């Protein structure tokens, strides 16, 4: 299973990031929820301290492009195998920076990828 960091995690059930954490966990993936507010989602504490997580396969973004620059170094220093840009998070600048480091990028929906079996 793929260890996934959900950036933009929230305890608000109306948000896609909330659903993503639940679905990733239900599919057996280890999830590291990171957000700007403390809380819990799917029984996991939402981290606000930018944890140094080892072995991250995927970073899935739920933070809009206007709020991403402050996260660039953190995301890239995790050295994930891929970054998923969910709808509304597409960012050519971050995609290029990631690709320069050999990190694969995808503009896709984590929820759809899980539901059709190509996550």
UniProtKB/TrEMBL annotation:
Residues 2-114 form the CoA-binding domain. This is CoA-binding domain-containing protein. SUPFAM superfamilies: NAD(P)-binding Rossmann-fold domains. Gene3D superfamilies: NAD(P)-binding Rossmann-like Domain. It comes from the Bacteria. It comes from Hymenobacter luteus. It holds the Pfam family CoA_binding_2.
């Amino acid at each position: 299973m793929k260890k996934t960091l959900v950036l933009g995690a929230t305890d608000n059930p109306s948000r896609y990031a909330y659903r993503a954490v639940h679905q990733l966990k239900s599919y057996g993936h280890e999830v590291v929820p990171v957000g700007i507010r403390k809380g819990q989602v799917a029984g996991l504490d939402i981290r606000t301290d930018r944890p140094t997580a080892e072995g991250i396969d995927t970073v899935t973004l739920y933070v809009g492009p206007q709020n991403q620059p402050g996260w660039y170094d953190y995301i890239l220093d995790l050295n994930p195998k891929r970054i998923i840009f969910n709808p509304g998070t597409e960012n050519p600048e971050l995609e290029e920076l990631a690709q320069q480091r050999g990190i694969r990028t995808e503009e896709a929906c984590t929820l759809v990828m899980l539901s059709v079996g190509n996550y």
